Every structure is written in structure tokens, then in C-alpha cells.
Amino acid sequence: MSLRKTLQLQNGIAIPQIGLGTWLSKPHEVENSVVWAVEAGYRHLDCAYVYENQDEVGAALKKVIPSVIRREELFITSKLWNNAHHPSEVEKQLDITLSQLGTPYLDLYLIHWPVAFVSGREKIPVRADKPDVAEIDVNTSLVDTWNAMIALRETGKVKAIGVSNFTIQHLEAIIKATGERPTVNQIEAHPLLPQDDMVEYCRKQEIHITAYSPLGNNLQGKRKLVDYPEVKEVADRLGVTTAQVLIAWGVSRGYSVIPKSVQKDRIIKNFEQVTLSKEDYEKISEIGKNNHVRFNIPVTYSPKWMINLFDEAVEKETQTEYVVKLE
Ligand SMILES: NC(=O)c1ccc[n+]([C@@H]2O[C@H](COP(=O)([O-])OP(=O)(O)OC[C@H]3O[C@@H](n4cnc5c(N)ncnc54)[C@H](OP(=O)(O)O)[C@@H]3O)[C@@H](O)[C@H]2O)c1
To answer: Where along the chain is the active site annotated (predicted)?
Structure first.
């Protein structure tokens, strides 16, 4: 059984430690996934405007609220997409998300990326001169958008606000300018990308971390973490799945973890929490020593975001044309 543990955010709100991811859950998949997850005991759902499936998540919510749970028992996260960073767009896109999900409020609303695109209907606007390159809004800063997020709290439509994919430099910039720390930074984190510096920084700042791609989801065709022999050895010995071991690895680091699945048996199993011994935790951590892999790097997307966010080798090799406008 899952331990159904919750962690406390800096504003006192509890966030369930294991949540369901919904990225790349296709139409007709995500509705069932959410229903199965809630029935299995999940109380934390990770959504985003850009996943283009929030209507279906909303349809699932209608099926489980109030027959299985009350709205207040769920922790729902969604994210502001890059094309609505301009302060005049922030609340408008939140309203679309609320209407898609069919809920009057979110428990947590995040700035999805520290990158602003030009505002408009296109989710990924492209440059007229280079259709394979996303058109970045060079005028709207992170601080502008963060101030608009702060203003949302007054509306009662969001219980907490935070960010995603922010580096320490991005976090420091918005905190310095506004005095307001994000409650959460949602980042890619798994044994190949433990992000120890970020984990330590956020611990000191009381910024909660949510780890995405905990199973090492990869769009780059690399070996999946669930297939690593080291993970399999621990899983076989404990009589659990490799995904459970990876989720347990994240849980032992004290943050929340949001594995995605659209398969009922996996959704159920991923939520059956196991605890790793110190030795097994270290065995899994070893996988990432001298083997750094970040899967989610926007300069590799199509269209490309020509911006160096994380200083990864591929970002340095690419002639990036933009920098993040901090303030
Ligand atoms: N903030 C951001 O920028 C950002 C970026 C990426 C992700 N996220 C969030 O984090 C969530 C999780 O990350 P993710 O979707 O990238 O990757 P993930 O959860 O690490 O991995 C998902 C992949 O693992 C498979 N899987 C699930 N359970 C499994 C199991 N028990 N055994 C073997 N394979 C299993 C899934 O396939 P099936 O569905 O077929 O089971 C899917 O292919 C996302 O869904 C999204 O909500 C946020």
C-alpha cells in the first residue's frame, strides 16, 4: 500500500507525495487514467494547459467528484504556458485552465518554463524568418510574470503559486525583485539527474521540489531507467517493479514525485509505495555518478527554443540566440 504521505508547502498546504503525471497521455487515455488513479488512492494530479488534455482530465473529475472524493481532497496542479507570460494574459489563461478542468480553483499554479513566447493563440509561435525556431518574447521578464502570478492569489483561484524548470539563478532573480519565494519548483529529477545543488538550495529556501520524469521518460531514444540492470536487481530482490524502486528513490529524497502512466496496472502499482534501505538508495544513486543525463532540453525540441537554460553540452554547442530576461 502507498504510505499516502503528504509534505507541507511553505504556506502550510499539504501536497501528497506521489501524484499522477498527465503529459503525453493521449485523448481517450487520460480520462480513464485519472479515474483509475483516484480510485487507487492518488490525490495529486499534475496537469498543464500545453498538454492539451485538460478537458479530459475535467471529464474524469466529473466522474469522481463527488461520488469517490470531494474536490477539497484533491491536490490539482496546472501550469501557465509560455505564450501567456505577458501580465495581461496570465489570469486569462488560468481561467481557460479552470474551465477545462471544471474546477473553481487550483491547489498549485506554476510558470511552466522560464521562457516567454510572444502572446497569442499559437502555443508555439514560430519566427517568420525561421519556421523551425520558436518566437521568444524578449520584452516580458520572469519578474513581470511572477508579479502577475502573485496577484492571482488575491483572486482565490489559486491556493499556491510556483515555478517549473527554473534554475537557481532564475529563482534568485524573482525572489530578489519581489520578496516572494515560489512554493514549488517542479524540475526533471531522477537518478541520472539528481540535481543535488537545486535540492539543497530549495531545502534552505523552503521551496518544495516536485520531480518530473521520475522514471526517466525520454523522447531521445536512450535506455529507459526502468530497464537499467541496477534498478532491476533491487526491484527483483524486493519483489517490486523497477518503477516502484525509482519512485521510492525520489520519495526518499524528501520531495514529491509525479510518475505518468495510462495503464491501469501500472497506475495502481506505481502508487504502492516501497521504502528503500540506505544501501539500496545508494546503489540507485550510483547510476548517475559520471553519467549525467537530462532528457528535457528545449533547444532539442522542434521547433527549437534557441535559448541556453541549463548549460547542457547540447545547449552550449548550439548557437543560441536568446537569453532569459530576468527582470
Ligand atoms: N514541468 C515540466 O516541464 C514537465 C516536463 C515533463 C513532465 N512533467 C510532468 O511529470 C510527469 C511525469 O513525467 P514524464 O511523463 O515525463 O515521465 P515518467 O513519469 O518518468 O515516465 C513516463 C513513461 O514511463 C512509462 N511507465 C509508467 N509506469 C511504468 C511502469 N510501472 N513500468 C514501466 N514503464 C512505466 C509510461 O508509459 P505508460 O503510460 O504506457 O505506462 C511513460 O512512457 C508528466 O506526465 C507531467 O505531468 C512536467
So the answer is: 51 (proton donor)
